[in-house]
Amino acid sequence: MNDGSQFIDIILFAMVAVFLGLRLRSVLGRRTGHEAPPPEARFGGRGGTPANGSAGADTVVDLAQRRQKAPEPFEVQPSANTLAGRLAQIGAADRSFEPQAFVQGAGMAFEMIVRAFAQGDESTLRPLLSDEVFENFSSAIRARQQAGETSQSELQRIESADIVEARMDGRTARIDVRFVSRQLIVVRDASGAVVEGDPAQPVRLVDLWSFARDTRSTNPNWLLVATSSHDE
């Protein structure tokens, strides 16, 4: 009798366990819409889809692209066979060289030299000229003084100043500048009579001046090393 009661109890416990299991499955297995997304979806993995509807893998790639720096612009070096290329070579040898600043300085030197030569001011000319050019200018000044002549030179304006050639000769940089200017030039003899020029008529001059500098020198000054000019 006791064995029969125990058997019935086991059957009842089994039925209760099955019933409870079915109830738990019906509750725990149902999705309510408030469940947390799987880890792959939260971190952009391949297994999930983010809230914006795009694939998680695409989201990762997109973020990586946003973090990338913009590519540096590709700088094309000018050919050494061009004026720009030769100016670049001078800039590589002399880090302080800048073409626009050089042209401005050359214009100032042009004005100082023209005025000093007309006045016979050799002390001003000396630091601006090479030995050869200074000797030529000094000889012309002495010849004028010996003849009893005086020179009047008024630089009215520089119309243009342009670099037309540049080159490196060893460590020496050389640059040719074409100046177009308006000048009033008059030469008078000992009696004051005009022997050259017209005091009422300025002339348009085109000058080609060559400047040079040792790029390894601590002296930043460029020297005038050659000149040529003609009227227009």
- What proportion of the residues is helical, as a percent range? 40-55%
Strand content: 25-35%
Rounded to the nearest angstrom, the distance between the terminal CA atoms is 142 Å
CATH architecture of the domain at 83-231: Roll
Mean of residue pLDDT values: 80
The value of Rg in angstroms is 45 Å
Structure characterization notes:
- It is a single chain.
- This protein has 232 residues and is of the alpha+beta class.
- It has helices at 2-28, 39-42, 56-67, 83-93, 99-119, 122-125, 131-146, and strands at residues 150-169, 172-188, 194-197, 203-214, 223-231.
- It has a domain at 83-231: Roll (Nuclear Transport Factor 2, Chain: A), CATH 3.10.450.
- Strands 1, 2, 3, 4 and 5 form a 5-stranded antiparallel beta sheet that branches.
- Strand 2 (172-188) and strand 3 form a beta hairpin.
Q: How are the elements arranged and paired?
A:
Blueprint: H1 2-28, H2 39-42, H3 56-67, H4 83-93, H5 99-119, H6 122-125, H7 131-146, E1 150-169, E2 172-188, E3 194-197, E4 203-214, E5 223-231
Antiparallel strand pairs: 1-2, 2-3, 2-4, 4-5
